[in-house]
Amino acid sequence: MLDFDPEEVTVAATGSVHSDPETLGGVPVFVGTRVPFQTLIDYLEEGQSLADFLADFPTVRHDQAIAALEEAKEAVLAHARPA
Asked: Which of 16, 49, 56, 83 has the most CB atoms lying inside 10 A of its own CB?
C-alpha cells in the first residue's frame, strides 16, 4: 500500500489531475473526467496494469495517467525523510 495522501499531490503544469469542489466533492480527478486519481492507485496496488485501467476508463488518456504518476513520484520523493 502506498503511504501518501493522493490529495496532497501537487499538480504540475501538465494539469493531469485537479480538484474541484463541484466535481465529486473535491476528490482529485483526471482533468476532463470524473475518474478519481485514487482509482489508478487502487488498480496498481491490486496488481492490475496501466493498460487495464485505461481500458476500463477510456476517458483518461495514457499521457494523463503517466503524468499523474510522475507527479505522485515527485511528491513522494520531495517528502521523503532520511532514514
From this structure: 16
